Amino acid sequence: MKISKGIIIITSKHTWATSSADVSVVIVYWQAKGHVENYLGRCLAALKAQTLAPREVILVDNGMGELGVGGLEPLLSPIPLKLISLPKNLGFATANNLAAKQSHATWLALLNSDAFPETTWLQELIQAAQHYPSNYAAFASRQLQAHTPQYLDGAGDSYHISGLTWRRGYNQINNASWDKDRETFAACGAALLVKRDVFLALGGFEEHYFSYLEDVDLSFRLRLQGYRCQYIASAKVLHVGSASTGSQQSDFAIYHGHRNLVWTFFKNMPLNLLCLCLPYHLALNLVSLIWFSYKGKWVIWRAKWDALLGLATVLKKRQHIQSQRQAGFWDIWPLLDKGWQRH
Prior knowledge:
12-stranded mixed β-sheet, globular
């Protein structure tokens, strides 16, 4: 057991197996009571059933304080389990960053506690990582809706020239048209494989975000460094979605999503692209204010106001990101979605 600044780290008795994949699976847990039985237990059981086992599972108890290694070990044994218990909810971004620093594997597989991977999920991702060139640093899974798996939950994330982002293929029929691997702008953090050294070199997820769009922001910064992201059709997971934060239309989701949307745009867009796309971004924010006000979701005003208040900090981070970037206009522009119909 290791204790530091209120953070407790407990490691199970099992050690890494030489036959396992060089990957740490990271799961951040923050849920209401009963979630262990309904979601987390199923998630861990799915990891135990993988055809290619991870070297370890790092579980972050994000301030709930109700987990213990002893009760979870049987769900994973003989896969080693490392439990990081945080004194309070520090947010999805910070929790994943702490876990990444505790890993010594080459790859990080980030998995939501309400995501249940098919048995070959990890094997498909690792095989893809070995197949593609070294500049492919992130891989997106094929996410299916857990309760209605005939529909997609997402096949990588799209990024629009306005700064709007969405899961590609969301709510579309899961058919053969999604069977082909392809490059995607970003990988959804619900089931993402990423090179650990690249993740840490980029500073991990943006902790200022707390939650929402940290995966898109990471993928954008990854691309600015010349790395690429690939959707792997055969790496499948069932995903409940919003099991911890509530509906995508909740005040929490609207506030963090629309605040972070502004920050992601201004922090990462190269100057020439920022100037070109700024009118679309301003139009998107205006439409969002009108639409959510019409729906009675007044939290949208606080989201945009706080986004403006935080712009000074964001622009300071922008200076560093843009001074270090390796990719330019023609590397990013072809990857941006330019239509208004989601697909």
